[in-house]
Amino acid sequence: MSRAVRLTVAASVAAIVALVIGMIAGGRAFPRIIPGLPDSGVVVRWGLPLSKLLMDAAGVVTVGLLLMAALLLPNDKGVLGKSALDYVKAASWAALVWAGSAFLAIVFGVAESIGRTVPQILERTILTSYATQTTQGVALTLVVLFGVAIALFSRGAITAGAAAGLLVFALVTLLPAPLTGHTSSSPNHDLATSSVSLHLLSLALWVGGLGVLALHALRKQPQLDVVATRFSRMALWCYAGVGLSGLFALVARLGAISDLWTSEYGLLALAKIVAFVLLGYVGYWHRQRTLADLRAGKPRAFTRLAGGETLLMFATVGVAVALSRTPPPEYSIPADRAFELLGFPLPPPLTLSGIFTMWWFDLFFAVVAAALAGLYGAGMVRLLRRGDRWSWGRTAAWYIGVALLVFSTQSGLARYAKVMFDIHMIEHMTLSMVVPIFLVLGGPVTLALRALKPASRRGDRGPREWITTILNSRFTKVVTHPLVATAIFVTSTYALYFTPLFESAMNEHLGHIWMTLHFLISGSLFFWVIIGVDPGPHRLPYVWRLLMLFVTMPFHAFFGIALMMMGGVIASGWYEQLGRTWGDTLLQTQRDGGAIAWGFGEIPTLLVLLAIAVQWYKDDDRQARRADRRADRTGAGDPELDSYNDYLARLNRADKGE
Ligand code: HEM
C-alpha cells in the first residue's frame, strides 16, 4: 500500500471513529423515542450520519483538488501542467462520490423523517416528493445535480481559468445542505446562516487544501516548496475564518455560555474548539520549522506533520457531523411570528434616533466591509512603504463607500428595511447608487495592480496576473459593455419588484444576501463604466458617459412612478406576517417607497456629474502637460498646434505679398 493510500485510509478511519464517539456522546447513537414516529432502525440511524460524513469529506476533497490545480501549483501561461491535470481528473471522481453520497443522504433522510426502514421507502413517489418538496430534500438534490455537473466539466478542464471556475462552483455546492439543518431552525437564523456559510467556505479551502498538499508531499510530487508556501499564506486566513465563523455559529445556537459544559451539544462543540487550538499550534510549528526545512531541501518533517494534521482535521469533521445531528439545547424564545421571521423582535415605531441607535450585526456584510477596508489599507501601506504615492482623494472615496456600506447593512436602517418598504427603498438606493459611486472612485483595481508584485516564475499566475486575466477576459468585456451594464442595472430592478422574487428574497436570509449583493454589484458595474478610474475594456468618451447617465436615470424615475401607482402590495405575504400595528399602511409605505425611488436619482446624478467634470478637467490638464513635456523633450510641439501656427504664418506671408 502506498503512503498516499495509507493516509487516505487513516483519515477515513479517524473521521469515522470521531463520528461514532460523537454520536454516542451526543446521544444520537441510540433509538429516539418520539411519540407517533416509529424508529427507522439501525441502518438508517447510522446510514444518515455516515452518508453526511462522506458528503462533507468528498466536498472538502473536491475543493482541495481544484484549489491545488487552479491556484497552488504553478501553471504555464494559464495552461495546467501534468500534476495539475491529474488533480482535476481526481476532482472529477471526488465530485461523483459527493453526488452519490448526497443521494444516499436523501434516501436515509426520507426514511428517518417518516420513521420507516430503507426497503419500505424505496418507492419512487416518496423519494421524489421528499427530494422536490422539502427544504432538506431540495438542498440535497442540488448537491447531487451540481456534483454530477462538476464531475462532467472537470473531465474537459485543461486551463487554470476553467479549474478556478470549477473551484467556485464546488464552493457554492457546499452551501445548501448544512444550511437546512439546525441553521434554518435556529432562533437567530440570519447569524446562523451567514456563520455556517463562512465556516464551510473557509474550512473546505483549509482542510481540503491541506489534505491534498499532504498527499502531494507523500507522492513526492514536484514543486512542493512552492505549493506549501502558497498554501501557508492562505491557510492563516482560512484558520481565522473557521474559528470566528464557528464561534458565531455557536453563539447563534446556544442560549447561555453554561450550555457549553452542561449540554451534549456544548460538549461536542468544546471538543471542536480543542481540536481547533491544536490545529493552530501545528500551523504555527509549520511556519516556525518545517517550511524552512522544506525550502532547505528537507521535506521529511513537513510531510509527517502535514499527515498528522490531516488526520486531526478529518477527525474534527467527524465530530462536526455528530454535532450537526445533536439537538442544540432548548431555550425559550418569544413565541412571536415576527421574531421567528426577522431573528429580532419587531422594532418600535420608527424614529430618526432609532436608525442611529438600533444597530444590527449582519455577519456577512461585516466580513465584506472588513475585507474591503483591510485589503485597500494593506495595498496603500505597501505602496507608501515602497516610497510610492497614492491619492488621498481616492482613499477618502473608498472609505466613505465602505462606511456607507456598514451603515446601510448594520444600523437601524437595516432593521427597519425588513419591516417597512419605504425604508427598504432607501437602503436599496443607497447600496446601488451611492455606495458604488464612492467605491469605484477609489480605484481598487489600479491600487491592486500597483501594490501586487508580478509572479516570481515566468508564465505563472499570481494574484496580479489573475486580476489582469479577469480584466481581459471575455466575461469582463461582455458585462462591462455599456449596454450590458446599463441593462443589468435597470432591468434587474423591474424584475425584482414586479415578480415574486422580492418576496422570496425577503423570506430567506441567503436570498436577502444575494439581493443586497446584487444591488451593490450591479451598481458598481454601472458606475465603474461611467466614472471608474481603473483600466477597463470599454472606456467611453466623456460625452457618451453623460449620455449614458441621462438615458438611464429616467428608467429609475419610471420605476418609482410605477410603484406609486400600483394598487396591490408587493410581498404582502411577508409584511402581513410581521403584524406591524404602527405607522402607515402597507400600501402607503409602498407609495412612499416609489416616491423615494423617483426622487433619489438626483443624488447620484449630482455626484456623477461632479465626478465627470473633475475627471474631464484633469484629463485635459494631463493632456496639455503631456504635450508640453513632449515639446520640451523633442523641441516639437503638439502636431495640431504646429500645423495651425504654420497656417497662420502662411497667411501672414501672403498678406505681406512675400
Ligand atoms: C472554534 C472552533 C469551532 C467551532 C466553535 C465550530 C462550531 C461549529 C458549529 C456550531 C457548527 C454547526 C453545527 C450544527 O449544524 O448544529 C459547525 C459545523 C461544521 N464544522 Fe465547525 N467549529 C469549529 C471548528 C471546526 C473545525 C476545525 C472543523 C474542521 C476541521 C470544523 C468542521 C465543521 C463542519 C464540516 C461543519 C458542518 C457539519 C455538517 O453540517 O455536516 N469546524 N461548526
Automatic annotation (TrEMBL):
Compartments, record wording: Cell membrane
Keywords noted in UniProt: Cell membrane, Membrane, Transmembrane, Transmembrane helix
Domain of life: Bacteria
A single BP term in Gene Ontology: copper ion transport
Mode of membrane association: Multi-pass membrane protein
Residue ranges annotated for the Copper resistance protein D domain, each copy included: 227-323
Record flagged with keyword RNA-binding: no
GO cellular component labels: plasma membrane
Positions of transmembrane segments: 53-73, 93-114, 134-153, 160-179, 191-215, 236-254, 266-284, 305-324, 358-384, 396-417, 429-452, 478-499, 511-531, 543-575, 595-617
Name by which UniProt lists this protein: Putative copper resistance protein D
Species in which this protein is naturally found: Nonomuraea fuscirosea
